[in-house]
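Worked example 2:
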Amino acid sequence: MARTLSTINARWIAALALAFVFLLLPGPARSAFSGMPLSSRGVAVFFALVIIVAFTCIYRPTRAVRARTLRALAVLCLLKLVLSQFVQLEGWRGEYWTSATWRRTTTVLKRATFMSSSGVRPFRI
């Protein structure tokens, strides 16, 4: 079955886009696929993907990516998204307080809030 150049390019673009999505989805901490923000290993994988994209743009691929490879990447993205909800956070738990009002006699404190992959919470790990 002959593949046209547009089909070959579309499948490569889809495969690379799924690879970027897989890299940026939340995952286990301190791994190359930890998600945003990227770890140092994640940055290395990100730049490797950027180099692959650059070479794909310069030297057009002659073979299409198989449809089962695209499906496998999509399933991996879905699995990572679902399983990331069950990853346990590890490390020290820190709660921070900031001053809401400064007065000469008393200072009123309020708890600081932080954004995380699971939402807003009053502590940081």
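The chain has a mean pLDDT of 83. The first strand starts at residue 97 and ends at 102.
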